[in-house]
């Protein structure tokens, strides 16, 4: 999973952040559980994931900011203010989908 985030100034990309992968920590999952409906995630398609990510952004801004700081090492609050919301949502959607895939892989394996 490749995650990318651009920092903009007047519609021009002034800095790029990249992360190869990100594994959600239990504490982050716990915080997101308070922000989104897990039944929607389990049964949703890409459009549903975008709606879910949008809810997470609006209702849990502090949680989202800390998540992005954890994913993209060195990113600041000031830089986060200069990120397009559609790019933030794309990163959140990718993390949710990746995490669900990894959880399902674990369920499919033998103990």
Fold topology:
Elements: E1 3-9, E2 12-19, H1 26-33, H2 38-43, H3 46-59, H4 61-71, H5 77-80, H6 85-108
Antiparallel strand pairs: 1-2
Q: What's this entry about, in short?
A:
By secondary structure, the protein is an alpha+beta fold. It has helices spanning 26-33, 38-43, 46-59, 61-71, 77-80, 85-108; strands spanning 3-9, 12-19. Strands 1-2 form a two-stranded antiparallel sheet.
Keywords:
single chain; alpha+beta; two-stranded antiparallel sheet
Q: Could you describe the 3D structure shown?
A:
The chain has one domain. It has six helices and two strands. With 111 residues, the chain is of the alpha+beta class.
Shape: globular
Q: Based on helices, strands and strand pairing, what is the structural class?
A: alpha+beta
Number of DSSP strands? 2
Largest sheet: 2 strands, antiparallel
Distance between the termini: 26 Å
Q: Number of helical runs?
A: 6
Backbone CA Rg: 14 Å
């Amino acid at each position: 999973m490749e995650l990318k985030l651009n920092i903009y100034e007047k519609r021009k990309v002034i800095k790029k952040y990249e992360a190869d992968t990100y594994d959600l920590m239990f504490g982050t999952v716990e915080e997101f559980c308070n922000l989104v409906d897990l039944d929607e995630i389990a049964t949703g398609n890409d459009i549903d994931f975008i709606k879910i990510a949008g809810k997470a952004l609006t209702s849990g801004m502090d949680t989202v900011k800390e998540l992005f700081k954890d994913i993209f090492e060195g990113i600041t609050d000031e830089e986060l203010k200069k990120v397009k919301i559609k790019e933030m949502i794309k990163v959140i959607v990718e993390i949710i989908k990746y995490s669900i895939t990894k959880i399902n892989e674990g369920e499919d394996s033998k103990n």
